[in-house]
Design goal:
Layout lengths: L3 E2 L1 H7 L11 E6 L3 E8 L18 H19 L2 H4 L2 E13 L7 E13 L2 E10 L2 E14 L2
Antiparallel strand pairs: 1-2, 2-3, 3-5, 4-7, 5-6, 6-7
Length: 149
C-alpha cells in the first residue's frame, strides 16, 4: 500500500471531479490513522475570481471540504476494497472549525488529518491546515460511509 497518492489515485477513491476535487496529493499516509493532504491554491482556482476580486481568499467552507475529502481518501484507501466498493463517504457534522489566517492564492495548503475513532460506518476526524508552517485553520468533523445509488 502506497504512502503517497497523486490526483489520479485520489480520483479512483473519491467521486469528486474538477472543479470540486480540491486535494491534489495525499502523503505521509498511516493506514486508517493519519495523512497529509496537499492543496495547491492557484490564482485560477474557481473560487478566486469572486471571493474576493480585489483580495482573493480561499473560502473557509472549502478548507473544511478539503479536510473532508482528505479524510474520505484516507478511509477509502485504508479499508478493504470489497468493503468500500459502491460506497461513498458523506460529511455528517463539523465541529470546532476555526479559521486563523486567510489562505491566499499561490500557496501550498497542507492539511494534517487524523482519524480519532470509528464506530461502524461513522468516523470522527480532526485536522489542522498550514501554509509554510503557519496554522491557517483547524477543525473536527464526522463522516459516514453510505451505499452509492
Amino acid at each position: 500500500m502506497s504512502d503517497k497518492l497523486n490526483k489520479k489515485d485520489i480520483e479512483k477513491l473519491l467521486p469528486h471531479r474538477e472543479p470540486m476535487l480540491l486535494i491534489d496529493e495525499l502523503i505521509n499516509i498511516k493506514k486508517l490513522f493519519s495523512a497529509t493532504a496537499i492543496v495547491y491554491v492557484k490564482k485560477d482556482s474557481f473560487y478566486v475570481q469572486g471571493h474576493f476580486p480585489d483580495q482573493p481568499v480561499m473560502p473557509g467552507v472549502l478548507i473544511v471540504e478539503a479536510f473532508g475529502q482528505a479524510a474520505a481518501a484516507l478511509t477509502a484507501h485504508g479499508i478493504d476494497k470489497s468493503t468500500y466498493e459502491n460506497k461513498l463517504v458523506f460529511l455528517m457534522s463539523v465541529e470546532k472549525a476555526r479559521f486563523r489566517n486567510p489562505v491566499v492564492p499561490d500557496c501550498k495548503l497542507e492539511l494534517n488529518i487524523e482519524a480519532i475513532r470509528s464506530h461502524g460506518k461513522v468516523w470522527k476526524y480532526k485536522g489542522e491546515a498550514f501554509v509554510s508552517g503557519k496554522k491557517m485553520a483547524d477543525a473536527q468533523w464526522s463522516a459516514t460511509i453510505v451505499d452509492r445509488k
